[in-house]
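Recall the central idea of this unit: under ordinary conditions, the amino acid sequence of a chain determines the structure it adopts. In this exercise we apply that idea directly, starting from the sequence alone.
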Amino acid sequence: MRVRFKTFQSQFGLRERVLQKVAEFAQQVGRERLISISHSEERDNAIITLWYWEEDIATPTRSLHDTTPLTSKHRPFPPPLLASA
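Accordingly, the structure predicted from this sequence is:
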C-alpha cells in the first residue's frame, strides 16, 4: 500500500460545490482507506487535500486482475525484525 492524495481548489463563492466534491470522493475512497482531510486558506482561495491509502496496482507476484487478498508473501516490504532472546 502507498499513501496517495487528491487536492481540490476553491474560490470563496464556489466553496459549497467543492466541499461536496470532496465529500463524494471521500465516500468513494471509504472509511478504512481514508487517512485525513486537510485544508489551507489564503484570502478567498482554499486548497483541500484528501489523503488516503491505495493498494499497489501490480507487484511481480500479482496481476492487475488478481482480486485475492494480500498475504504476507505479497507485501512489498520485509517482515518485521524479531527480537532475539
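The two ends are 32 Å apart (CA to CA).
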